[in-house]
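Sequence only, no structure available. Ideas?
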Amino acid sequence: MTALDDAHARPDGASDDLVATAGKISESLERIERARGALYEFHQLMGGADTMLDDVVDGLRAAGHDALARRVADELVGRNVSQGRGGFQIVEELDDGYYATFRELERAVREETMQGRRHVFEAELKQRRRTAGRPGHEATP
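Reply:
I predicted one. C-alpha cells follow.
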C-alpha cells in the first residue's frame, strides 16, 4: 500500500502485527492523555469547590450558625483530597511518575519499531478507507 507521506510510511520490514502493536501503545497513550485531562479537571473542580466553601462559612456565620460554620471551616476548607495530598500533588505525582514513564516508553517503541514515525497504523487505515480523487478524501493537505 502506498503511504500517505514519508512521515507516516511503514518502515521496511515492519509486519502488520508490529505496526498494529506500535499503534496500540500510541492509542493507549492517547487514553492516558484523556485520563490526565480528567485528573486536571478533577484538580480544578476540587479547588473551585474548596474556594466556594469560604462563602458557605461566611453565610453560616451571617445566619448565626457559628458552630456549624466553624465545623465546615475546620473539617473541610483546605482538606486533602487524598492521604496527605491536595489535587495538585496528585497531578504532580502522575506527571512525574506514571505519565512521564509512559510517554518515554511510547516514544521508545515508536523509535525502535517505526523509525520514530507516528500514527503509521492510522495512516494506513486512512489510505484504505479514502476514495482517491474524491473531494474531502485527499491523502495529504
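Helices lie at 16-62, 66-75, 87-114, 120-129.
Hope that gets you unstuck.
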